[in-house]
Amino acid sequence: MTRAAIIRKNAAALAPAPHLLDYEVERRRFSWDAVRAELGTMPGGGINIAWAAVDRHLGTPVRDHVAFRFLGRDAHCNALRNDSRRDITYAELARLTNRFANALRSLGVGRGDRVFLLASRIPELYIAALGALKSGSVLTPLFSAFGPEPIKTRMTIGACKVLITTEALYRRKVASIRAELPQLEHILLVGEGGARTSVPGTRDLATLMEAASDAFEAERMSADDLALLHFTSGTTGTPKGAMHAHGAVVTHYATGRYALDLHPEDLFWCTADPGWVTGTSYGIIAPLLHGVTSLVDEADFDAERWYRLLQDEHVSVWYTAPTAVRMLMKAGPEVVKKYRFPELRFIASVGEPLNPEAVWWGAQVLGLPIHDNWWQTETGGIMIANTPAMDIKPGSMGRPLPGIDACIVKKTDTGFEEVREADVEGELALRVGWPSMFRGYLNQEERYRKCFSGDYYLTGDLARRDADGYFWFVGRADDVIKSAGHLIGPFEVESALMEHPAVAEAGVIGKPDPMVGETVKAFVSLKAGYTANDELLMELLGHARKRLGAAVAPKEIAFLPSLPRTRSGKIMRRLLKARELGLPEGDTSTLESGA
Ligand code: AMP
């Protein structure tokens, strides 16, 4: 296959006909109000994400469709074994989420209360997420690979009242921090393999569910009432709780249609974990809004298993991530040759830069190019995308979806100014007004205000737009690290390292990595009386891993006699990175002498 700069599409030949057939026409005629009207409101008024996703379908044939197909870790271990597989229809999901909402109500939990989830991709997590939304509670999913420290920080900032987790995760990650979480009133546990639990100070979720009625009317919320609190990281300070309201569901619906092109007969597989925003917006909400069946696989990445699932589960729309694609590429052609994917009709990816090579690999090996799209926790939904009918420029994130105005801005003396010319690098900005825009960072008004300039939300990403209106990712404007698609704040890692008695100062950078984008590397200087040696290195790596969890902890730690700081005392991560990569050091005029 020749590698032209553009992959041309023949939109007329695509079946089913893509929702976004004519980009310009659809952008012109698009209105958020029309989407809002199409989605409708609850009988008697009000909106609730869980009502729109589940109960809205009950009077329609969708009620008998499978909403989720859950595969346990041991399902599909070989082609014949299918024992831990559970299908839940929309009607069943409505009943189960009602039960969960009633269980919360029986504990006095409802509107505005903070409910956190910490679990792998098990059915209970999905039922609890939707049930909590139904009850009017504000939902926060946590990544199950976090260690106790990130869990404690987020539960404290978010004033978590109820935690739903598994017995194993509770014992490993929560029991040790529980005494430091005074606002936490209830812990509901899922037992291993469906077993009941009896851990002191917690409740058994299955027992609560059993006692609860399966009739519940979803709370009528307003479009501005809080629904979700998703944590994200910045360069400095604690993690930020991005607040999203029930009205965000309008974006989830529109983007499920345009960017993922969901049709009712689709078998959709979003590989993201609900501990991150993609796994919630597109692993739970958007596919349900469109009445499709979602595949949920509990197991971790495994190339052979993933190809088998794509084939045997007849996946038609697949939403995954660049790291996963690169891991499939690395697994080599022999594995993929054993499988066929005749039903697969659309592949999209998000979360980090997608190499042009990966787009082409999809076209050659899976028979379909991979369609990159862009968004972030704060935007609540996909903003820029390559859609099925759109020509792809490999390496580009695509064009803004209908209803989204994106542009490149540059800082001037008086604020930010839009750059009208093509191919100029600057900060990616979005005109405010789409329904899933975050409503603030919890208790951090100043940090929220700084994200805006006039009518524009400043994304913190550097990008350029070409003459055809395609956007190209350039890099982050700040020091946050993207590793395997997960956003990591260097400050959180530095703080955990500083808690070790040997560490005097710590600076953390993202080190480019061909597979996962970036890995976390830390530089530390030691307090007097400590010696840099292999033993201490292993101890520090272990300390960080235990506190932060595998997803966040540094993979590498290097000792330095001292870290470069500005005269005002800030560690210069930029300089650490430049030195690590052998790049020019740039402006060092603010560097403290001798560093
Ligand atoms: P998160 O808030 O964790 O979803 O991370 C959002 C960030 O991930 C964005 O601000 C970008 O830096 C990065 N990102 C998301 N999608 C893409 C993409 N398609 N290409 C490059 N970077 C991306």
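The mean pLDDT is 95.
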